[in-house]
Structure formats: C-alpha cells, structure tokens
Design brief:
The protein is about 50% helix and about 10% strand. With about 400 residues, it is mainly α. The protein folds into 3 domains: about 190 residues, Lysozyme, CATH 1.10.530.10; about 90 residues, no CATH class; about 50 residues, Roll (Membrane-bound Lytic Murein Transglycosylase D, Chain A), CATH 3.10.350. The strands form 3 sheets. It has a two-stranded antiparallel ribbon. Strands 2-3 form a two-stranded antiparallel sheet. Strands 5-6 form a two-stranded antiparallel sheet. Helix 4 crosses helix 13, helix 8 crosses helix 9 and helix 9 packs across helix 10. The longest helix is centred in the N-terminal third of the chain and has 24 residues.
Amino acid sequence: MRKLAFLIICISYNVFSQIQIKVPILKPDIILEYDIAFEDKIPQTSKVDKDTLYNEDIIRHRIDSLNQLTPLNLVYNKVVAQHIKFYLLQRKEQVSKLLSLSDYYFPIFEKYLDQNELPLELKYLPIIESSLNPNARSYAGAVGLWQFMYPTAKEYGLRINSYLDERKDVYKSTEAACNYLSKAYKVFNNWDLALSSYNAGRRNITKAIRRSGGVFNYWELRPFLPKETRNYIPAFIAALYVMNFATEHGISRSNEDMFLSYNADTVYVKKPIKMSHLAQILQLDTLVLERLNPAYRIKLIPSIESENFTIVLPYDKVGLFITNEESIYEQLESMELAEKLNYPEFTDIEKIRYKVKSGDYLGKIAKKNQCTVKDIMLWNDLKSHNIKVGQRLNIYKTVK
C-alpha cells in the first residue's frame, strides 16, 4: 500500500513538473495598467436588418463628395456600379470582415502613406490586391498584402530567404509599395495610370499608350489595357466607396478578426524562437502570434550575430515578455531540447546582373548559375526563351 502511495506521489510530481515547464509562472507586468488607462473601445456599428436600396443618384453624390477630398480621380459609371453591386449584394460577409481587419491594417498603411506624401486613399489598394490577407498568393506568384512578384520585391529591398518573406511583413511591404507608387506617379503624373501600372507593370501601360496613339486618359485607354487592368480602377473605386459607406448599406464590421494596431507592438529577440513555444509560455493563441508575424515562413524566428530580429506581440504580452525575458529564454531552451529542435541554417539571397554573351541560351545560363530556366524567366518577366547578346538578366543566388 505504501509503495502504491509513493508511486502515485511520484507520478503526480512528474505530471505537475511537466505542466510547470510548459507554462511557467511569470512575473506580472505592473506597468500595463498605465498603458490601458486611457484606452477607448471602438463602438460597434449597429446592424441594419434591411439593406438601403441601391440608389444611383445617392451613390453618385457620395462618390463625388469623396472625389472632392482626394487627388485621385474617383468617378461613377456603369463599370464602377457593377463592382459596387458585387460587393454589396454578393460579398457582404467579406466586406464585414474587411471592415474589422481595416482597424488593424489601415492605421499602419496611413502612417507610411503620410510619410511618403501619398494620398491616404491608397490604403484601399490592398483590399483589391489581397483582401487584407498577408498570406495571399496569386496564381501568378504575387504574395502578401500588396501582392509583390518576386523580382519586384527584390528590386524594392524585400527579403525572401530560408526564414523570411518580407512581402508578408505589413511594415516593410507597405514601405516598398509606397516607393513603387511614388516612382510610378513621377513617371505618369496621373494616378489612374500609376495605379494601373501597379497591377500591370509600367511597361504594359506604356505599351497600351503607344497602341492607343498616345492616349493618357485611363477610361479612353482602357480597351488597350490587359483584361485584368481594365477592371482594376473600377474595382478600386468600388472598394473605396463600400468601405466608406458600408453602414449605409446595412453592413457592420465583424467581431471575429478585430485586432487594433495600437494594441500590438514589436520587441527585439536575443535568441532563436519557435512561435508555438513562445505562445505556450505567454499563454497566447499560437494562431494569433502567427497572424501578427506572417513574414516568418517556417514559424521560427532566427538569431544571427549580424542582425536583430523582431516579433510582434499583443500589447498586454509585450511587458510580460520584457519583464520575464531571461526566464523565457531559459524555458524556450528547455522546450527545444525536449523537442530535439534544430534550427535550419540562415541563408539569404543576393541579386547579380548577368550580361548575355555570344553563344548563351537560357539553359546554359541556368546551369552556370545553378537555377532553372523557369526561375530566370520569372525573375526577368520573360515571355519566351529569346534573349539577345548584351542583354542584362537578374539572377538570384543563395548566400550564407
């Protein structure tokens, strides 16, 4: 009997020890109360049971009123009307979710747009690009909130490597998008064409202008544009209208995905971290942590001597992390040992400019640079295998 009691005590001790290792008792963040003392709750929009009727005169007037407040060219016509009706009649739940997500993303977009002296209305662009989903990937390979293709992302300084895809980083991708849009506007001096180039590329816009005989008005140029780009500006105007007047059409924000941007903050990490381990220690939903840090491709945060990496945490967990940082790292190390976790080697990618020589063809260049023909075509937006002597090609190589 005594042996049995002793065995039960040992088992209980082991069980409770394991629980203690997984979720340690952390010192409370006593400063948190000062941070949240002046916090205001966002009032919830009351639901309207019945949609406001689609009144063209009212919608036209609303768009005209928005147009008075922006350097963009906001118009109402049959094509724009079709896109507005699509959102209001077929995508009401999506609009509701977008309203909620916008509470997190729009203040970030506005900050970068303002810093770059760009129209704040450009914050609606990621709605038609990605539906405010940082993990969105198009059939063509564009990734992130602002839907950057690989070559454009590298051109604008976004890193894509073994650990990171900064096309998914809301801060860095927004800065890159601002740089692109600033440059495009300087080229065309016309926001319709600058936005169209964001979708189709500057080359396709200039090609359409040539085919049209020199037309610079988007609506007149529209028949000469790629099919997707013909709907790009109408979709943008529709998204801008719907996000501003959803309430008037009986659409309220969803509560499912609400997370306010000012309720999150970044901290630097000193050691490598597996997100699920940190979430467990901080008693935070792993999915929330992953949603706040989508740029980490394999849900691991690296640590190298030459660079500091950050992690975004809910604000009430930031102080907890800082207060208990050393004990958290010790706990993370224990969890890694128990899991026998090995972090992959950190590799990065650099761009080289390859000059085509006599006798070169894509297969030969690919073999020489240890990549594929498909890679070279993607990196350089090539539509065929034809290349010319003296032509410069972008080649991306993995470096340690």
